[in-house]
Specification:
Blueprint lengths: L11 E2 L5 H10 L5 H13 L12 H10 E2 L4 E7 L5 E6 L5 E8 L4 E4 L3 E2 L17 E2 L2 H15 L14 E4 L9 H12 L11 E5 L3 H11 L2 E5 L5 H7 L8 H9 L10 E7 L7 H10 L5 E7 L13 H13 L26 H16 L1
Parallel strand pairs: 1-2, 6-9, 9-10, 10-11, 11-12, 12-13
Antiparallel strand pairs: 3-4, 4-5, 5-6, 7-8
Helix pairs in contact: 4-5, 5-6, 6-8, 9-10
Bound molecules: S-adenosyl-L-homocysteine (SAH) and iron/sulfur cluster.
Iron/sulfur cluster binds next to loops.
Length: 374
């Protein structure tokens, strides 16, 4: 069976515990509260993966910790580097599920696009992830683990305060709907933002939602990260075809929640993502309607050329069309850059994420089920 090769360990992973949980764990372990600060520093500032390297702790304590605990990152099933240097990690989490994270490098910085769920329940018709059946929420450790693994891989521990990092930003735009897994996403991002550890500023974090209206307020109040909203259409009719969740939370309600989003202002605008689909949502009239719709909201628009995947029922709008659309939105007073597709050759671009190994997984599951019921 798939997991048989895994070293079944009784050791508990400390990655992903909140400070309070780590404190409770250490108390139960018979250690004083100040250990939490020390451990936090080694785990999240220095990024060590081995207790033996925690040189401010006594050797016996290091050994005892190593007996009971581990600092495991998700297991890398495959690592690919695109022609444009975008990197994609296919990661295997504890129970054998596969998720993906993608690093998108820029000149002097870079963003890690992280997953929040295995798959996604939301079946947006243009999104590859939405066609994946297997879905479960990722744990806080699996979410923060994606960041830690990428930082391991880029050799960016320990945390200097400098800006010249390849991994300087996080976008919650990988697999899954982060606001359907809010508690775990929140715990993970709180760890990432903790000032004695990774200490990434909330201004370097953007969370993208397909429009889970009831959770948006809490996201703004409790996490205070930047928000991106997957709008994609200007009428409920078309949006419902693209993002079925629109039936539940139609455009007017979604935009109302955006108007109320805590902390949004002209200096911190909400990004409206708009995927460019040929003959579906890309007309001049659509562009003008978009400008009207976003009036009064501190907004910017991000035009995403549709990234194709095998069997996708859409085509990407032509370059000319996309630029004409962008110009109209710009003339309407909104910034509307066209997102450059990255990592297309390794299916790492927006909406292409879906472990190709998932089919194998499914057949394996069927076999396992058959074996179990035989
Ligand atoms: N579930 C969240 C975040 C993950 S999707 C959301 O939907 O916002 C991240 C972004 O990629 C979303 O804006 C999504 O609409 C977009 N996207 C999905 N599939 C795409 C595709 N095939 N081409 C271009 N963008 C896509
Ligand atoms: Fe889920 Fe976002 Fe893809 Fe829609 S676009 S299926 S919400 S991951």
């Amino acid at each position: 069976m798939e997991n048989a090769g895994h070293n079944v360990s009784e050791r508990k992973n400390l990655i992903g515990l909140s400070r309070a949980e780590l404190a409770a764990e250490m108390a139960a372990f018979g250690e004083k509260p100040f250990r939490v600060k020390q451990l936090w520093h080694w785990i999240y500032f220095r990024g060590v993966t081995d207790f033996a390297d925690m040189t401010t702790l006594s050797k016996p304590l290091r050994a005892r910790l190593a007996e009971h605990y581990c600092l495991d990152r998700p297991h890398v099933a495959r690592h690919q580097v695109s022609e444009d240097k975008t990197q994609k990690w296919l990661l295997k989490v504890a129970d054998g599920h596969l998720i993906e994270s993608v690093h998108i490098p820029e000149e002097d910085r870079g963003a890690l696009c992280m997953s929040s769920q295995v798959g996604c329940t939301l079946t947006c018709t243009f999104c590859h992830t939405g066609t994946q059946r297997l879905v479960r929420n990722l744990t806080p450790g699996e979410i923060v683990g994606q960041f830690m693994l990428a930082r391991d891989s880029m050799g960016e521990w320990p945390s200097p305060t400098g800006d010249a990092r390849q991994l300087s930003n996080i976008v919650m735009m990988g697999m899954g709907e982060p606001l359907y897994n809010f508690e775990n996403v929140k715990l993970a991002l709180q760890i990432v933002m903790d000032e004695e550890g990774i200490s990434l500023s909330r201004r370097r974090i953007t969370l993208s939602t397909s429009g889970v209206v009831p959770m948006m307020q809490r996201c703004g109040e409790e996490l205070r990260v930047d928000l991106a909203v997957s709008l994609h259409a200007v009428t409920d009719d078309i949006r419902t075809q693209l993002v079925p969740l629109n039936r539940k939370y139609p455009i007017a309600e979604l935009l109302e929640a955006c108007r109320r989003y805590p902390g949004a202002n002209n200096a911190r605008r909400i990004t409206f993502e708009y995927v460019m689909l040929k003959d579906v949502n890309d007309s001049d009239a659509d562009a003008r309607a978009l400008v009207r719709l976003l009036k009064g909201i501190p907004a910017k628009v991000n035009l995403i050329p549709f990234n194709p995947w095998p069997g996708a029922p859409f085509e990407c709008s032509s370059n000319n069309r996309i630029h004409a659309f962008s110009r109209i939105v710009n003339d309407g007073g909104l910034s509307a850059p066209v997102r450059r597709p990255r990592g297309r050759d390794i299916l790492a671009a927006c909406g292409q994420l879906k472990s190709d190994t998932v089919k194998k997984r499914k057949s394996e599951l069927l076999r396992e089920q058959a074996a179990a019921t035989a």
